[in-house]
Amino acid sequence: MTGTMTLHEVQDWQPGRGCTPTALCAVTGLRRADVDTALQRVASLRGVALTDTASVSPQDWGEALKLLGYHWDVLHDHTAPRLELDGAVRTFHGAGLLLMIAVDDKGAGHVFATCDRHIVDCWTYGKVVRHHRFPDEYRDFTVKYVLRLKPL
């Protein structure tokens, strides 16, 4: 665990690596191999052999965050009206280090890391960028959950 409350650039990011590992690397500052190890460990505790950490269930990455030294508070959940992506980043500006979980109407999920209107995601190529607008291919997604991270 780094113990810092900022976004980190994903030093070993590569295309096709998936949003979940990208987001977990961004919030922890760890390399992909360390995040993958935590995800695989959690999956193995459930008796699942995880071969592709790019597509991970929220229960696995939530538990992996604990292994990586983080806890979270839910700031927004599925019972509240969903927020469009750009509006969610603006709404939660100043709330700290966040993971935002979004879904589209077809059931596809997406997770990204944000802190003070900066984002790390697959479309940023693992880099920390100032938020201006999400790419058009994300327009069908709305934010279902916002988690504020804190070191354990």
Structurally, the number of domains stands at 1
CATH architecture: Alpha-Beta Complex
* Strands, count: 7
Any idea of the CATH topology?
Answer: Cathepsin B, Chain A
Number of helices: 4
**CA-based shape:** globular
Keywords:
152 residues, alpha+beta, Cathepsin B, Chain A, 7-stranded antiparallel sheet, globular
Polypeptide structure, described:
With 152 residues, the protein is an alpha+beta fold. It is built from four helices and seven strands. The chain has helices at 19-28, 32-45, 58-67, 85-91, and strands at residues 70-76, 83-84, 97-103, 109-115, 118-120, 129-130, 142-151. Strands 1, 2, 3, 4, 5, 6 and 7 form a seven-stranded antiparallel β-sheet that branches. A hairpin with a 2-residue loop joins strand 4 (109-115) and strand 5 (118-120). Helix 2 crosses helix 3. The longest helix has 14 residues, at 32-45. The radius of gyration is 14 Å and the shape is globular.
